[in-house]
Design a protein that fits this description.
Blueprint (H helix, E strand, L loop, with lengths): L2 E5 L53 H5 L4 E5 L8 H5 L5 E4 L9 H5 L6 E4 L9 H7 L2 E4 L5 H16 L2 H9 L5 H5 L9 E5 L3 H10 L5 E5 L6 H7 L1 E3 L3 H5 L4 E4 L13 H6 L4 E5 L8 H10 L2 E6 L30 H20 L8 E4 L2 E2 L1 H9 L8
Parallel strand pairs: 1-2, 1-3, 3-4, 4-5, 6-7, 6-9, 7-8, 9-10, 10-11
Antiparallel strand pairs: 5-12, 12-13
Length: about 400
């Protein structure tokens, strides 16, 4: 029998379960490109319920315990005396989320001699030391595409919120004011602007497609150029580097993975080359930008706004400067964990566990490392540092 340790974010502060705004979810036929949605043999939750927090347990407890397996669910993941560290010694499976990552470092993997499967409930497995997993023969899997569109929608929302100065305007209304001049003194139309994405994988392309109807000029950079028919369909301008793109846009949305080439990519030097009054939205990884350089650029006016939902560290401390810097639209790391997305990534987690526990092959598109070897196109992309679409 297996022991599964599942690390999820804490329950709502107002208590669990919450009241749900909607009683059903729209039905999807599949993902763009033809990949099918998760197909587990069963589900022990109603899609649309909060299953991504501790009490939701990804809907796994009945399924696992009915077969004699042990499930431990916790949000306590930091420090040597955390519940995660205490449970690692005899864990066969660790499930984590990009929004509340349980970092499976080489040191933690060394303290988990029985660990055979590291499973990401969602997409983005960069919290797992892949080299250590390969050396130990550990399988690393994630629920590919389950929340890519969720992240894309969040990025588009934040672009509009920044450019239209929505958040300060809403605050004025909520506090009883009617300060129209104050609202519009930092508000513009998105129409006619140059908007670019850093990395045009699944999420980046979804952002581009959703922005096209706004009448903007679309730009992108990626290690692999998109097919000509896609560029023509969307009216895309390709740039060979992020540096070239940054000089030619008004708004940039970041969807690249974090690796040595992208760490601190948007530093003081690069920010200075951007058009004065540009906007940045970052739903990829916080360390792709220089934290303090972003603050200074907002204070000087070089940037007109910065938004995103990724921080370093996560959760961010109360005194993190991004909480209080001017013209920010930051949220906690929530873009990929809507109730809609949870239904998909919880179902995909169940599907992966069903297959693994039966000893049958896990879907190739879910595999990053398969028992000690890189597996499938997803793993190749991680290795090349190009898995732009799999970061949330």
């Amino acid at each position: 029998m297996a022991k599964i340790v599942c690390v999820l974010y804490p329950d709502p502060v107002t208590g669990f379960p919450p009241q749900y705004a909607r009683t059903s979810l729209p039905a999807l036929d599949g993902y763009p490109g033809g990949q099918t949605l998760p197909t587990p043999e069963g589900l022990d939750f109603t899609p649309g319920e909060l299953v991504g927090s501790v009490s939701g347990e990804l809907g796994l407890r009945e399924f696992l315990e009915s077969q004699g397996h042990t499930l431990v669910v916790t949000s306590d993941k930091e420090g040597p005396d955390s519940e995660l560290d205490r449970e690692l010694a005899d864990a066969d499976v660790v499930i984590s989320q990009p929004f509340w990552p349980a970092y499976l470092t080489a040191e933690r993997i060394a303290r988990a001699p029985k660990l055979k499967l590291a499973l990401t409930a969602g997409i983005g497995s960069d919290h797992v030391d892949l080299d250590a997993a390969i050396a130990r023969g550990i399988t690393v899997a994630e629920v590919t595409y389950s929340n890519s569109i969720s992240v894309a929608e969040h990025a588009v929302m934040q672009i509009l919120a920044l450019v239209r100065n929505y958040l300060p305007s809403h605050k004025i209304a909520a506090e009883g004011g009617w300060n129209i001049a104050d609202c519009v003194s930092h508000a513009y139309d998105l129409e006619g602007m140059d908007v670019g994405v850093i990395a045009a994988g699944r999420i980046g392309q979804a952002v581009l497609r959703r922005l096209k109807p706004f009448g903007v000029r679309l730009h992108y950079t990626d290690k692999r150029r998109l097919p000509r028919e896609v560029e023509e369909e969307l009216g895309l301008t390709f740039h060979a580097s992020a540096q070239e793109l940054a000089r030619n846009i008004d708004v940039v949305s970041i969807h690249a993975p974090l690796h040595p080439e992208t760490q601190n990519l948007f530093d003081e030097k690069l920010l200075a080359t951007m058009r004065p009054g540009s906007y940045i939205v970052n739903t990829a990884r916080a360390q792709i930008v220089d934290r303090d350089a972003i603050v200074r650029a907002l204070e000087s006016g070089q940037l007109a706004g910065y938004a995103g939902d990724v921080w370093y560290p996560q959760p961010a401390p109360a005194d993190h400067p991004w909480r209080t810097m001017p013209h920010n639209g930051m949220t906690p790391h929530i873009s990929g964990t809507t109730l809609t997305a949870q239904a998909r990534y919880a179902a995909g987690t169940r599907e992966i566990l069903e297959d693994w526990l039966k000893g049958t092959p896990i879907r190739e598109e879910y595999l990053i490392v398969d028992g000690g070897r890189l597996a499938g196109t997803g793993a190749a992309s991680y290795t090349a540092g190009e898995k732009a679409e799999e970061e949330n």
